[in-house]
Amino acid sequence: TINYQLKNNINHAACRWCYNKIPMLEFLGVAKDIGLKGIDLLKPDEWQMAIDQGMTCSMSMAGLGIQQGFNDPSLHETLFKSYEKVIPEAAGLGIKNIICFSGNRNGLSDEQGMINCAHGLKPVVKLAEKYSITIMMELLNSKVNHPDYQCDSTLWGVALCEMVGSENFKLLYDIYHMQIMEGDVIATIQKYSDYIGHYHTGGVPGRHEIDDTQELYYPAIMKAIVDTGFKGYVAQEFVPSWEDPLKALRQSVQICDV
User: Fold this and answer.
1) How high is the mean pLDDT in each 10-residue block of the chain (258 residues)?
2) In sequence order, which residues have a C-beta less than 8 Å from that of residue 33 and are 6 or more positions away?
3) CB atoms within 10 A of CB 4
4) Distance, CA of 80 to CA of 9 (rounded, Å)
5) Minimal CA–CA distance to 157: which of 193, 208, 204, 210?
6) Among 52, 83, 156, 164, which is 20 to 30 Å from 101 by CA?
């Protein structure tokens, strides 16, 4: 281990799925050594393992996945039951964030999709308020990775936040996805920081390491995030291409540590 002191301006995290081939305990041990404070996208039965290592689940799973989200009224009851179960459990272990998705358009207009999402989310967010949990909808690209996904622009997400009207509903701004959809990352972060509760990283194009093999300059992006007064988590969500994926994770955390 190279002794690298993190500056503590950013709460670093990483998404578990990018390291699925590495056994959980081995992954958590290295994550802790790197200085991560959280692990994203853990299932409820995995939360305790992260907590035992002195970290937390920085973004919990719930719901039915990316394609089946709150824009489909026929799923609202099923979705509510999922969040109704996960929210109190998460709160009991001090976990603060739970992910959600718009779902695919399937022919819905953006306006109707937003109305449907707000309608389905309001009871979930009301419950989240009671437990001091934030529900976060992820912004994803519909151009490369998630064709037809509805919440594919910051402005749509911000308008939905306005419609839901709660501090306990925010956006998960995925830098990789939004660079593909709209670019202008730093200005967007500066303008809409109040609506953003969490960040994901990834190299563009290709979603690999966030070093100088790709087009985004992460130190400047991270500085912009810190300058907004952001106190949430920044989670690495690139797909490692190196032979040693955990070495790649360590490097990326250091790149982002401004």
Assistant:
1) 82 98 97 97 96 98 98 98 98 98 98 98 98 98 98 98 98 98 98 98 98 97 98 98 97 98
2) 1
3) 11
4) 35
5) 193
6) 52
